[in-house]
Design goal:
- With about 180 residues, the protein is mainly alpha-helical.
- It has helices at about 5-25, 35-55, 65-85, 95-110, 115-140, 160-170; strands spanning about 85-90, 90-95.
- Strands 1-2 form a two-stranded antiparallel ribbon.
- A hairpin with a 2-residue loop joins β1 (about 85-90) and β2 (about 90-95).
- α1 (about 5-25) runs antiparallel to α2 (about 35-55), α1 runs parallel beside α5 (about 115-140) and α3 (about 65-85) runs antiparallel to α4.
- The protein is elongated and about 80 Å long.
- The N and C termini lie far apart (about 60 Å).
- About 25% of the residues are buried.
């Protein structure tokens, strides 16, 4: 590995992670531009270090497995992804952001390992899924989306049941309610 190659690998990891993070940022997600850039750069650095450990620090004739550090990065991402997932009543939010974080780390690993083309294709497909498919969902599948409605009522017996009946009469499917 030349002197500039690791730096270029990390720079590409930051750029590709940043593009994915920018899409999340523009959608108002909590894990956005900076988070995705830092994650991709860190995963890329882990891949570079893993390869260098295998090449530089292994005993002659007994190379270590360069995938071991990278595997720990992928395992550790579960905790980061879990932090992005939140349950609101009967719906779950943050699954797409958790998946984008996981994928961004893998893109960073690919960059760090020097697989630039594969990383660029992975980032492009991820952006396509987030942006193009996101637009498709918004334009054509909006009736399948869950919305939260907060209503303040004066308490009296049967008011929640009455409200639920009114909403269902308007074609609104009530998934969950709390009083």
């Amino acid at each position: 590995m030349g002197a500039w190659e690791p730096a270029l690998n990390l720079a590409l990891a930051a750029v590709l992670g940043g593009l994915i993070g920018l899409e999340r940022e523009l959608r108002g997600q909590p894990a956005g531009l900076r988070t995705h850039m830092v994650l991709s750069t860190g995963a890329g650095l882990a891949a570079i270090i893993s390869v260098l450990f295998s090449q530089e620090l292994s005993p002659l004739g007994h190379p270590s497995d360069p995938g071991r550090i990278v595997a720990q990065v992928v395992s550790g991402l579960g905790f980061l992804g879990a932090g992005a997932i939140v349950r609101y009543g009967s719906s779950i939010k943050g699954l797409t952001t958790a998946a984008s974080l996981w994928t961004t780390a893998i893109v960073g690993i690919a960059c760090g390992a020097g697989f630039w083309q594969l990383a660029a294709i992975g980032a492009g497909l991820t952006l396509g899924a987030l942006w193009v498919i996101g637009r498709f969902e918004h334009n054509f599948l909006s009736s399948y989306r869950t919305h939260t409605l907060k209503v303040t009522l004066e308490d009296r017996p049967g008011i929640v049941k009455e409200l639920r009946g009114e909403l269902e009469g308007l074609g609104v499917r009530v998934v969950s309610s709390s009083a």
